[in-house]
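User: Some background: our group keeps a shared notebook of sequences we're curious about, and every so often someone picks one and asks for a predicted structure to add to the entry. Today it's my turn. The entry only has the sequence so far, pasted here. Could you supply the structure so I can complete it?
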Amino acid sequence: MTELRRIAPTSPDGQKRIVWLCAAHRREGGSQDDAYAFFSELHEAGRLLPDEDDSLRDRAEAAIRLQRGLTADLIELLGLALAEPDSEHRGDLGDWLPCRMFVLQGDGVEEIWCALSVRSADGAFVRETVRDLLFAALEQHVAPALFEARNDWPSGAIEWFEVVRLGVREPSAAT
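Assistant: Of course. Here's the predicted structure to add to the notebook entry:
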């Protein structure tokens, strides 16, 4: 008997650009592993096609991917600032969130300055929770360090749309 396998992408919600896969396999009707009977039961129960739970999961996973990507970019920018202290480093985290980083070293302490914008690169406002999660990731990455909110910047002024945190640690704790 020849085995046939086929995978066909389908997208019942079209505009969301989500691809759901449907797999088919040659079968023997009435056998224990008859996938068609299983799919028929799912269809009759209204559980064959994606539903609101699937949509919620997709949005949750997208939020996690975004936060992980922003955090990775923040840590990369920190690495540049640590490699070149006493100079400002700028970047758009995820090509979306403007960020500045500045590291000062001396007198037995290392100062790590981070400014995150309240506006994205396209001008939309960024939720406070997004910035808070990024500041928390920074604190965790450079621990042990003491952090505080600041209204100044070591190389000049801050903009009205920036939120600044300063972390202080001993140089021996460098990442």
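Suggested note for the entry: Helices lie at 35-44, 52-83, 128-142. Confidence is low (pLDDT under 50) at residues 1-11.
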